[in-house]
Amino acid sequence: MALVTTTEMFKKAYDGGYAIGAFNVNNMEIVQGITEACQELKSPVVLQVSKGARAYANHNYLVKMVQAAVENCPDIPIALHLDHGPDFETCKACIDGGFTSVMIDGSSLPFDENVELAKKVVDYAHAHGVVVEAELGTLAGVEDDVNVSAEDSSYTRPEEVEEFVDRTGCDSLAIAIGTSHGAYKFKPGTKPQLRFDVLEEVSKRLPGFPIVLHGSSSVPQEFVQKINAHGGAMPDAIGIPEEMLREAAKMAVCKINIDSDIRLAITATIREYFDAHPDHFDPRQYLKPARQAVKDMVAHKIVNVLGSDGKI
To answer: 303 with 309: CB under 8 angstroms?
Structure first.
């Protein structure tokens, strides 16, 4: 099976009341852990690459690793997606370079400028058989090159979504309903809340249209505690409750982005390993259990949050 676009997997997810996991990849072990879990659980998947990942690992290496995963996991649909494309040039480079899906993030721009930028990317992408995700509303938080203060964040305005989708022709839409980038999503003592009323109104205005949630890591406390117990310093790291994400997946949300949880799983496992084996120095020794931790975490998300197991 070759790389696919998200069109068919989103349609099935919308109709079936589940979501596709969109997991950020930065190296070989992450790609392997994610796709091995998906292959075993028969789950479609989106492997997504940020601007920061392209700078770190190189575009060509990332594409080749994902292509290797497609060959090793022939039973599952895999899409390769640009996460938070900052401009037309980056989107174009990914479209020309083998990606099957791109996101253009003009959410910080005024409405008309966001429309203009998204339309430009859509026109080029569709001419090359690639699908486009755009964004309305601005998420708070810090992750890679995304850095938005709580004061500058804003919920998606449902009354704008129809005009935006009509004018841009985008294939999916990321909305802001209370999720946040990074591992520090909420202040200590506050109760995380998602604006399901906004999601419901958006879905009424865009029936059958796939919605995306960014910043949807749950920041499992077992990883945070393990990191802190083995020399780390991550006080007050809080994420989105998994039951809220599962509820969103039953609605119009067809793609849920998860990045921080992968980072936490790897870091917690490696820190614990270093404490237990201070004499080891072979990267294969500590990257093997780190890869397994990614696989286990992704498998948990597929079954308990996304509901995408057995959906190929």
So the answer is: yes
Nearest to 207 by CA among 5, 15, 7, 46: 15
Closest CA to 220 of 283, 116, 294, 144: 294
Helix (H) or strand (E) segment spanning residue 83: strand 78-85
Radius of gyration of the chain (CA): 18
Output the DSSP codes for 161-176: HHHHHHHH--SEEEE-
d(CA 185, CA 213): 14
Q: What confidence tens digit (pLDDT) does each residue in 94-142 have?
A: 999 999 999 999 998 999 999 999 999 999 999 999 999 999 987 654 4
Whole-number Å distance between alpha carbons of 210 and 173: 7
3-state SS, residue 87: coil
- Edge-first strand order for the sheet with 180-181 is 146-148, 140-143, 180-181
**pTM more than 0.90:** yes
Residue 61 three-state SS: helix
Map tokens 């060959």 to a residue: 71
Give me the count of residues in the chain: 312
Classify residue 288 as exposed, middle or buried by CB count within 10 Å of its CB (0-12, 13-18, 19+). middle
Distance CA 147, CA 140 (A): 7
Q: For 270-291, how does the pLDDT look when each residue is reduced to its tens digit (9 = 90+)?
A: 999 999 999 999 999 999 999 9
* Antiparallel, parallel or unpaired: β 146-148 and 140-143: antiparallel
End-to-end CA distance of the chain: 12
Q: Does the annotation count 83 as an active-site position? A: yes
Question: Looking at 83, 105, 259, 261, which residue is catalytic?
Answer: 83
